[in-house]
Design a protein that fits this description.
six-stranded mixed beta sheet, single chain, Collagenase (Catalytic Domain), 4 domains, alpha+beta, Immunoglobulin-like, 29 strands, 609 residues
């Protein structure tokens, strides 16, 4: 919405006046279509001599005519208020810009022609550097309305006056009123731009005018012009809306800039807002207009408006469109971030600053820093919104890390908001991000005695630093596609690894069985060998025993045989001996007796010697 640029339009009543001749001593300046270098800084009144397309160039900017009216008005103001206004000057003379208008005088009518706006547009096109801190007064050589001598926008910086026609060039104005009509019109319309309304309490006051005041009195216009004699209306008081004695418009430096300071009065009424009232702009798009209404019902048309928008340490300048600030918001400005729009305005002596803060939004008008698809480093997001069977008691959240699914969270379910009676259970997983990157997750229903395992579709969350552009829709879409693809690859890899693991386990089991069998067989073989060895050793021992017994038996037999042989030999020897007579000597005392026989025996009483 654009605040009304019109403000209040004031008109100057018909004045019977005389056209003053140019000051004879005034030096002529070269005609200029541009505002020449200023001799003073700050606020000043700049005059523009306008010749309509069908008008006659009277060269008022060259022959000193305008200079004369300005000097007359200054003298009158000095005599009646002790002050003079600040007029734009160059080389000691009033600086007047020449404008050859493309409009005819009929196209610059009072009621429906937007005359001041047309002239302002023309002079701005002709002189783009003409400062809006100056109040402009267009002086025309043609009569634009038979009932008025000029008009202006209140609390603005645009005004005009003309001194053509029978009703605006009477020779009696100076002698009767003490001021020529052009000079009076100049002061009257300039005061209107400062915000002074018509004053009806004194018909001699320079600010009397129609349609508010009664100008049909026989004495109207027949008294000398005065300047707020009560000092209550506009010069020492503000009954006529403004006390111009306090404005910084005077050549002697009186007045206060603080008094000319405007305040914004509309809050965020004329701002782009979301449904909840949050002021917003959208990243990567041209913003809506940021517009303020100002105190003193300021008229904003030929104004200087400076527009800035900042977010964090980033700041750009916008453009002014019909007093509204419009911005091409950079795409890298992060949705969910705060921004501040500041407008600085200058209109004649008035100036003001307004600002408003809001949130940077996405194309879909969301303003949260994080969504289930994008987030910033240090941000967080809640994953939920699924509804499950009433018997589902627990859900898990898995993350794809280094190509493998790992469980990162496990939570009990609870009655979910928005879930129906058939599937009432839900859970929310809060994720905090302390690093940038593409994070891939999926919801998992672990296998239980009631349910088979359920693996949700993988989804990606793109996490970046806050000072870079939020990923585009195409980047988000590609990340989702990659998440599904990488998730499937991880599942395939996990299945392959599981299959390989099972095969390895089966092989290991078979190998163990084979190894156990081999060990058992070896043990059996060893046992058999041990048994054989024991048997062999037993057999050997038995054999040894048998051999030893046989040997002993042989020894016994041999001994027996030997004994038999000995016996036989002894028997034979005995037999032989028996068969052979031997002689023994037997003694008995001194007696000796020899006995010869096979077996000789000593006689009784004898002993063998």
């Amino acid at each position: 919405m654009t605040f009304s640029k019109l403000g209040r339009l004031f008109i100057s009543i018909i004045l019977l006046s005389a056209i003053f001749a140019p000051t004879s001593g005034a030096a002529s300046l070269v005609r200029s279509t541009l505002d020449r270098p200023d001799e003073v800084s700050g606020f000043q009144i700049h005059l523009i001599y306008v010749v309509t397309k069908d008008g006659v160039d009277e060269q008022r900017d060259l022959n000193g005519q305008i200079d004369t009216w300005v000097n007359e008005s200054q003298t009158w103001l000095q005599n009646n208020s002790g002050h003079q206004l600040i007029f734009d000057s160059y080389q000691g003379q009033v600086d007047v810009t020449f404008l050859q208008s493309k409009y005819t005088k009929s196209e610059l009518c009072f009621d429906t022609c937007d005359t001041l706006y047309k002239l302002a547009d023309e002079i701005r096109a002709q002189d783009p550097n003409l400062a809006a801190s100056k109040t402009l007064y267009f002086n025309l050589s043609e009569m634009l309305h038979p009932g008025y001598c000029g008009w202006a926008h209140g609390f603005g910086n645009l005004s005009l006056g003309f001194s053509k026609g029978e009703n605006c060039n009477s020779p009696y104005s100076v002698s009767v009123r003490g001021l020529s009509s052009p000079a009076k019109t100049l002061i009257h319309e300039l005061f209107h731009t400062f915000g002074v309304a018509h004053v009806c309490s004194n018909e001699s006051d320079i600010m009397i005018g129609s349609p508010e005041c009664n100008t049909n009195s026989p004495s109207f216009g027949q008294v000398r012009t005065t300047l707020d004699l009560s000092h209550k209306n506009y010069l020492g008081g503000d009954l006529a809306d403004i006390d111009i004695s306090k404005l910084p418009i005077w050549k002697d430096g009186s007045g206060s800039k603080e008094y000319a300071k405007l305040s914004p009065t509309s809050g965020n009424l004329y701002m782009p807002k979301l449904g909840d009232g949050t002021v917003f702009v959208r990243a990567g798009e041209v913003s809506g207009g940021f517009t303020w209404a100002w105190s003193k019902q300021i008229t904003t048309y030929f104004e200087k408006v400076t527009c800035t928008i900042s977010s964090g340490d980033k700041k750009i300048t916008g453009t002014s469109v019909k007093s509204s600030c419009v911005f091409a918001v950079p795409p890298e400005w992060r949705p969910g971030s705060d921004f501040t729009v500041t407008q600085e305005i200058e209109v004649g002596p008035y100036f003001g600053t307004a600002s408003v803060s809001g949130k940077i939004a996405r194309a879909n008008y969301s303003i949260t820093p994080c969504t289930t698809k994008v987030c910033i480093e240090g941000g967080s997001v809640v994953i939920g919104g699924y509804c499950w069977d009433s018997e589902v008691e627990r859900l898990a959240l898995q993350q794809l890390i280094d190509g493998k699914w790992q469980e990162v969270k496990s939570q009990k379910t609870e009655i979910g908001t928005g879930c129906n009676s058939k599937n009432p259970m839900s859970t929310n997983f809060k994720l905090d991000f302390d690093s940038a990157g593409t994070k891939i997750y999926r919801i998992v229903l672990p296998e239980t005695s009631k349910f088979q395992v359920y693996l949700g579709e993988p989804f990606a969350i793109l996490v970046t630093t806050a000072n870079v552009a939020e990923p585009s829709a195409s980047e988000i879409s590609k990340a989702q596609e990659d998440a599904v693809s990488q998730g499937k690859e991880a599942d395939i890899q996990e299945a392959a690894e599981l299959r390989a693991k099972k095969e390895a386990e089966a092989k290991a089991l078979a190998d163990k069985i084979a190894a156990d069998k081999a060990a058992a067989d070896k043990l059996a073989a060893e046992q058999a060998a041990a048994d054989r060895k024991a048997q062999e050793e037993k057999a050997a021992a038995d054999k040894k025993i048998a051999d030893e017994k046989a040997a002993a038996d042989k020894v016994i037999a041999d001994k027996a045989a030997a004994d038999k042989v000995i016996a036989e030999k002894a028997a034979a020897a005995a037999k032989a001996a028996a068969a052979k007579k031997t002689t023994i000597t037997c003694v008995k005392g001194k007696l000796t007796k020899k006995v010869t026989a096979v077996k000789p025996l000593c006689p009784s009483g004898y002993k063998k010697k």
